[in-house]
Design goal:
12 helices; 2 domains; heme biosynthesis; mainly alpha; flat; about 350 residues
Length: about 350
């Protein structure tokens, strides 16, 4: 084999952690964009406008009037049209179709943005040892997210006028878990690019506690969205002149109220946010004491912005763009939390070397 061939072969076997990290950060930004469009889709009641799951042929929207009418006729068969949107015009249908179509297209873009570069990096043997399984797991998670998305939509096609808030929560939380995984892995690869002997970060007990508290808040937020619970009160801090709102339905038992009552779920979401904020601010304080002032400051700013947006969402009666921004900053908060707990985990990993 010639020297040139040997050099080319060696180049194909050289790990490229810095390039991999940049790629994952780009995909993470795409995920945040998808979350934003998902929020618009939900708030414009567009999520049930496409009544079939066609992963390949569904890429193209209707291209002529006959195709649009055919899609509209399918929508007319579901309860949402019959009970809520009866009499909607074709132009009105096109408007809601656009957001659901865009949301699905962006989901496919995220999948391609993960799969195609991953295949290229794997062919070039540019993936560092121990990271291949993690990258393939992230790619597989995108496929799972697509399946969960259709499972969510299917819940509103036969007997309901909206999707199940449990399935909506699964869809959103899976997207946020993917976002956290992308950020965490990108940070690990970034450390490896700076130091060939760097070990992956580890979750500490404090980090796990903060993540668990944040998870509860995100779950409650997804339920609020799915039940339109943000609209049951537009005052803050009281809910319709009461600290504990009137109207909570306890007739089905405490568990039924906790998981299905919009008044109670709204109440829990607005006050658990303070528990989540305290946990994250304590995490920021711990990071600042260890010299990670940049991560700590970013955490404080993001938590403050999210709290303010949550209050504004309530007092504006769920203004669409404020509510969308609240969801987007929530996704950014997940990414910032991943950065923060990763930084804390690096301390733990180095201490155990």
């Amino acid at each position: 084999m010639s020297d040139a061939s040997l050099t080319a072969a060696a180049a194909r076997r050289t790990p490229r952690p810095a390039a991999l990290a940049r790629w994952l950060w780009a995909v993470a930004v795409l995920v945040i964009i998808v979350v934003a469009v998902g929020g618009i889709t939900r708030l414009t009641e567009s999520g049930l406008s496409i009544t079939e799951w066609r992963p390949v042929s569904g890429v193209l929207p209707p291209t002529n009037e006959a195709d649009w009418i055919a899609e509209f006729e399918k929508y007319k068969q579901i309860p949402e049209y019959k009970e809520i949107n009866l009499g909607m015009t074709l132009e009105g249908f096109k408007a809601i179709f656009f957001w659901e179509w865009l949301h699905r297209i962006l989901g496919r873009v995220v999948g391609m943005a993960l799969l195609l570069p991953l295949a290229w990096f794997a062919w070039r043997r540019a993936i560092p040892a121990g990271y291949g399984w993690r990258l393939f797991a992230l790619a597989a998670l995108v496929g799972l997210q697509g399946a969960i998305g259709w499972w969510m939509v299917a819940s509103g096609l036969e007997y309901r006028t909206d999707v199940s808030h449990f399935r909506l929560a699964a869809h959103l939380l899976t997207a946020l878990f993917l976002l956290g995984g992308l950020v965490w892995t990108a940070r690990d690869l970034g450390e490896l690019a700076r130091d060939e002997g760097a070990r992956p970060a580890r979750l500490t007990g404090a980090a796990i506690g903060a993540i668990a508290i944040l998870f509860v808040q995100l779950l409650l937020g997804a339920w609020v969205a799915g039940l339109n619970a943000g609209q049951v009160a537009n005052t803050w801090p009281a809910m319709n002149d009461h600290f504990v709102p009137e109207g909570i339905d306890w007739s089905g038992g405490a568990w039924m109220a906790l998981t299905n009552d919009p008044f109670l779920i709204h109440f829990l979401h607005r006050w658990w946010s303070w528990v989540a904020a305290l946990a994250l601010l304590l995490l920021a304080r711990a990071l600042a004491k260890r010299g990670a002032r940049h991560e700590a400051g970013l955490m404080v700013v993001t938590v403050a912005a999210q709290m303010l947006l949550g209050i504004l969402t309530v007092v504006t009666g769920v203004s669409m763009w404020i509510a969308v921004l609240h969801q987007v900053v929530g996704a950014i908060l997940v990414a910032v939390t991943a950065v923060a707990v990763h930084r804390q985990g690096l301390k733990s990993a180095s201490a155990n070397c």
